[in-house]
Write a structure and sequence with these properties.
Blueprint (H helix, E strand, L loop, with lengths): L2 H9 L10 H12 L9 H4 L12 E2 L1 H14 L2 H4 L3 E3 L16 E7 L4 E7 L3 E7 L3 E5 L2 E5 L4 E4 L5 E5 L6 E7 L1 H6 L5 E3 L13 H6 L20 E2 L1 H12 L10 E4 L14 E7 L8 E3 L3 E7 L1 E6 L2 E6 L3 E4 L5 E5 L6 E7 L1 H6 L5 E3 L10
Antiparallel strand pairs: 1-19, 2-3, 3-10, 4-9, 4-11, 5-8, 5-10, 6-7, 6-9, 8-12, 13-14, 14-21, 15-22, 16-19, 16-21, 17-18, 17-20
The chain binds fe (ii) ion (FE2) (2 copies).
One fe (ii) ion (FE2) binds next to strand 4.
GO molecular function: dioxygenase activity
InterPro entries: Cupin_2, GDO-like, RmlC-like_jellyroll, RmlC_Cupin_sf
Keywords: Dioxygenase, Oxidoreductase
Amino acid sequence: MTRQRENYREDVAGRANVEDTPELLAYYDELERFDAGALWTVANKIEPWEPQSTSKPVIWRYADLRAHVLRSVDLVTPEKAGRRVIYLNNPGRQDVSAAVGWLYSGLQVMHPGEVASAHRHSATAVRFIIEGRGAYTVVDGHKMTLGANDFVLTPNGTWHEHGVAEDGSPCIWQDGLDIPLMNALEANFYEVHPDLNQAVAHPVDDMTKTWGNAGLLPSGGDWDKAYSPMYKYEWAPTYDALQKYAAVTDGSPFDGVMMEYVNPHSGGPVTQTMGASMQMLRPGERTKAHRHTGSYLYHVTKGAGHSIINGTRFDWKEHDIFCVPSWAWHEHANASDREDACLFCLNDLPVMRSLGIYREQAFGENGGHQPV
Ligand SMILES: [Fe+2]
Ligand SMILES: [Fe+2]
């Protein structure tokens, strides 16, 4: 929207437009003494014409952060730090420690033989594995082995702990949590497991082997939780699904070939607050720009390319992380004419959709591309 139009809209009837006078300023001071205020002094700010995200579009390059993440191993132990994590601190969201919107994210590192004690919290967590051998997570007694680009859930209220096997290698993964949202809702509880570690009560990887079979669900399999019983989505079948789908679809002009991780029992999102998708940009593909409500954190899973977010170009390659704030224009391009590029995306779409506040708009000018 042009500046001129914005000015016009600020002047239209029905919007607050009261000039300060000495009498009014004194009146506001009086109201403040009673913990009250005049709505017209804040109305235009708290009721914008359209979403005004304070999040900045940011890219966190893995090449910049990796050495710093590894250095934390020499500086703190997991016991002392609780979790050894370097978090992504959006310059517009430092007050709530968010990477974008109401989503928190960080890079966690563990060395072979290390174990982080079990806990649970109201916040829902996911992790996306970057590198290393031997990492595992235990969720409510279900142990999962973790490999590169696997996507793992530790939904709200579940006991969870992580570790790396003695014969593994240093492991780094990306954590994503709805901590800022839980804190905004003032509903965040946190509890340490009474035994510090859980007993593994089921065969390793049983939830993925039970619920993660294409087109098949366990006969009589019952599940009454609001999150997915499939705690781990492995990379190999995910990439295989994308390739198969790409062979038979034109894809979306805005997203290329995109598939959503779902709860196999309900068909809905993987957790109540956070959803995730994996999208493929085919060789040479460049998407058109659009924008939508919700906050988005992309993790480059494969390949290299760039995204244009609100007119700024961000070049990315494998394991870089970048964010698209709510209602920001964005488009993506694969840099290669031979290889595909894949983007994992963590988002708060389940919140947008369940509250009925999801909105989408295509960029109309310039053949659907933003000026950079
Ligand atoms: Fe946790
Ligand atoms: Fe989009």
